[in-house]
Every structure is written in C-alpha cells, then in structure tokens.
Records
---
Amino acid sequence: MSEDQAESSATVGDPSKTKRVDVPHFYASSFITHVTSDVTIIFQSPTLVTFPSNSGAPIETLASTSVGAVSMSIQAAKDLAKLLENNVKAYEDMFGEVTTPWMELQKKQAEGNDS
C-alpha cells in the first residue's frame, strides 16, 4: 500500500479530518435511474401531499419530489457501484444486514419465478 493510500484509508470515517465541500447538499430516500450511453440518477425525497375530499376530511398521501440529478459515464457508474457496495459491506459488518422494501420485493419476485 502506498503512503497516499495509507493516509487516505486512515482518514475514512474520521470526521476531524473531513473537509467541507462547498456544493449543494440534499437528502434523498429514493432514486430512479436511466441508462443510455451514460447513467443518470435522479434522487428523490418524499413529500406529504394533501387533497380535498367530498367527505370533508382531507386525503394525505406521499409523493416523490426530485431533489437532484447526476449523470456519469457507464465506467464511472460501475466504479461508484463498487465503492457503494464496499461501504455498505463495511457498515453491515459493524451493524448487521441492511434490508429495504425494494430488496424484499426483489426477493419475493425471484422466489415466485423459481416455482
């Protein structure tokens, strides 16, 4: 491991060595992707939407609001996927497996296709 790699891996997770980057920051709880010759990821956050109803009680539902987008080459997307995979694995090694509703749906669909 080179000296640069050693220093880089030593600062991972150390907030005291993190520099603030002056770029827009947003929280997204979901995303959609679109792939052509590049990959575009549109990040979304839930928004509570209220509709009037005939009964007098408003109807509330969650809708997704797009909060940001990023486009990148397919090569960069593959690198990003690997980096995210490594980070999630490190998190799961410390705190246990992470599951999501989407992962559960994928699992049920795969089980349904196997039978």
---
Amino acid sequence: MNKTLSATQPERVLIESNGAGESYVWLRRNIMHDVADRGVDGSHIEFWSADEICFLALGTPSVGDIDSDFDALWSAHEEDKLTDRDIARDAAQRVSDVEQAVAELGTLFAGGK
C-alpha cells in the first residue's frame, strides 16, 4: 500500500487499459481533504490524501465490478507493491515492442528479410 497525495479529489476506483488486454486498477481508501500552511505569508494549499494500491487485471473490468469487490480486492492485492515506476517501465517496454514490430513490418513490405 502507498500513501498518495493529489491536488484534486482522487477516485475510489480508477481503471486504465494498458493496450495489451490488461488494465491497471487503482483502489483508494481513507480519502481525506486537508489544508497545509505554506509559510509566513499566511497562504495555504488544499490537497487530498489516500491510501492506494494498484494491480494489473485481465481485460477491462467495470468500475462497478471492481467497486462491488473492493474490500476483497484490496486484501488480495495489498502486498503487490506495483508502483508508478513499474507501470512506466511496462509502458516503455510495450512502446519499444511496438516500434520494433513496425520496423520489422517496414522491412517486410520493402522486400527485405
């Protein structure tokens, strides 16, 4: 589980397809609004905090399906430790794979081997 901060209220359930038949699913609980003092000038900044987990699901589940099993999914994936860095690395690898496939197709269409 990670603690997340946001300038806007985070969604309890967020689902994003990774384009490879799987979806990243973020679950958030203990969503709280807060205000932080920014110093001597008296200004402040509002923010949201939440406990957050992320896991990879097959297909693209609906928010309703995920929400109906929220507690069970949280328990099942609480220790997964999937981070934003893991997601970015996965996306970069998929882009690299697509670029390589496009280059190979280009070679085939140009009559190469």
